[in-house]
Amino acid sequence: MQMQRTNQVMTTLPPSSGELNAKALTVLRAARHVFLTHGFSAATTDMIQREAGVSKSTVYAHYANKEALFTAVIEAECAAFTNTVHGIEFRPGKLRETLTMLARAYLDIVLSPSGLAVFRVVIAEGPRFPKLARTFYLAGPQVMTTMVAEQLANAAASGEVDLGEIGRETAASLFINLVRGEPQLQCLTHPDAAPSSAQIDQWANAAVVTFMRAYGRREEASSKRSRS
């Protein structure tokens, strides 16, 4: 695996956070950095207050407690993910290219320092925040599965794939797991390194090739159908 050293969690917040007033946004940014760096349990409101450079009363004026801050941070991350993937442009009739584009975009998100940090903290705190963990799933993997399923439905109608009896939702879930599984595991277990762009391309391509070999119809067969 081609890896590059990294030891930093990005501290930007999604555009949706712009709806907050300046003080609340400052606190949310600080909370994001503290939670993604230290986790929920080790984080304290004092740490967030110092990171934000505001008074404790300012923190509590916008967020009732640490749990409320944590919920706001994860919800903002989910919104950022959804905004990013919905901006992807698709190419009808070009399933292989579309899946490659989706795989690359998804890996760029989930393998980023912040993407990995969010995953770690949500999984670690899932038993304490089950609804929030579910929200994270619905806004992340489920969004991608739905997008891929829509593309597979179009591809099946045009003869690009044969999904047999498994259906588009199951096929889409299998594809997403092909994309995310090994790359995410490697990055989670190599916390001091980051994959190179070439490595991400290789992972994305491997997932697409494997999926298309399993479900893709031969191009010449598709061409004959389109001419008949």
UniProtKB/TrEMBL annotation:
Record keywords, A-Z: DNA-binding
Pfam families: TetR_C_7, TetR_N
All copies of domain HTH tetR-type, residue ranges: 21-81
InterPro entries (alphabetical): Homeodomain-like_sf, HTH-type_TetR-like_transc_reg, HTH_TetR, Tet_transcr_reg_TetR-rel_C_sf, TetR_C_Proteobacteria
Coiled-coil boundaries: none
DNA-binding region in chain numbering: 44-63
GO molecular function, one term: transcription cis-regulatory region binding
Keyword Nucleotide-binding: no
PROSITE patterns tied to this protein: HTH_TETR_2
Keyword DNA-binding: yes
Gene3D superfamilies named among the record's database cross-references: Homeodomain-like, Tetracycline Repressor, domain 2
PANTHER family reported in the protein's UniProt record: HTH-TYPE TRANSCRIPTIONAL DUAL REGULATOR CECR, HTH-TYPE TRANSCRIPTIONAL REGULATOR RUTR
Protein's UniProt name: HTH tetR-type domain-containing protein
